Amino acid sequence: SSKTSPSLAGIAALSFSTVTAISYFVPGNAIYEPWHDLGASLLCAILGTVYVKLITTLSINGLSSRDTRKIIHTGSAPLFMLLWPLFSDDAATTTAVATAAAASNFVIWPRIFAALVPFLNGVRLYIAGSRGAQGSEGELLKAVSRSGDKEEALGGPFLYCGVLLGCILLFWRGSMSCIMALCTMAAGDGMADIIGRRYGSSNKWSFSPDKSIAGTMAFIASSTIVSLGLALWFQHFGVLTLENIPILGLGLRVLVISVICALVELLPLGDDNWTVPLSAALLAKLLFP
Q1: pTM value?
Q2: How far apart are the first and last CA of the chain?
């Protein structure tokens, strides 16, 4: 492990240097450089692995496996999204290759490189679910499943990667549908479970005894705060445009979507890893035309 850590640190440093150099120190680059987005993907993948490893280490030191799973569930997508501004700007990419005959095809490359991260994690989960606990996939299996059952990796965690992949390819960072879908699924649903198990034993919903009022309030608060924060983050970096929407109006719309999705999470409509983000995406389409 002593040899692995410096290697990972070196790769991370190289990736970060590449992305930073192209993003900030070479303004107006006239040619689209795929190495930029490849470096961003590599950096995201490495930091994601470090994040999971860190939470897994906490589990070994006393954190329950369910808490470990939900912390990974809650933080993975939002933390990944924080790094999305590192990828090439779609409009700039199109302009950079405007002289090429197939210019319109290049606009998808930044999101393709970003989509590699959840795709590869999905592949790892599939391998873990198919072969069981072996090597690094075994560590991943223990981190994302309640019981360590290999088939569980092909349930909620695998669907989580699928939703993340789909949101990147269909919406990407310039859409509130993407932000709301991922934040309700990750931050909202994750915190609902964490808070609900600790403070919800005495305030269960009568029509949904497995859910609590405390968990629902945590869902709404977490989803609203994280969604609003990421929307402003993307707007700051110019990858999201919210025309003529004041901060109060933005906050109210995000709150409405979070409340409705919290209600959807209470209903036995299927796996909330897809019912919640689907509801959020459709609502965002209506409220953010």
Answers
A1: 0.81
A2: 50
